[in-house]
Predict the 3D structure of the following.
Amino acid sequence: MSPRSRRPGLRVGLISDIHAHLDHLERALTILEAAGVDRVVCLGDVVEKGPRPDAVVERLEALYIPTVQGNHDANAVRHAGLEPRGCGMSRDTVRWLDALPRTRSYTWAGKQIALAHASLAEDYTGVRPGMVPKRMRRCLRRHDPDVVVLGHTHIPMRFRWAHHWLCNPGSVTKGRCALGPTCAVLVLPAMTLEVYSMRTGGAVSLR
């Protein structure tokens, strides 16, 4: 990210569910740069559905953006193993996707942050406000993060379960709510979430 005027707190840009659309990735990065982020992370589903998987992976890799593996990424690796010539991806892309971890954890601004695509559990059951699957609850008790950042549902959210904040930036390609495609900024240590419209580039309010 380019130099900017300093804003309070650590500002972490959140992108998810790119689905091989390079133009949407670039748009999200432009929005997050204007929002003054200090770093960017990706919550998975980098490939499948869109036309440019190799270019998207190359861009994420070139920017050293920490990324977790989504269900579409895992599916793409499996398909490449079955039909290597017809998978539509280079071998380097397949290797990169295969090496992605399911979860990542960090300590930023004194807060414990966990990243995953759909859940901290070994499944892809989505999390929604008021709907935290039992296996996810067990993971929260075991790992005890302050904030968990997820993707998968294409719906931006921020809600509290027990003493944990659960956040989702939505999808940069196809939103499944009235807000449409979105990206977001997690502000630490306040643990607030700023959601940005991919259409307008402006901040939007969660209902």
Notes: Helices lie at 22-34, 53-62, 71-82, 91-99, 134-143.
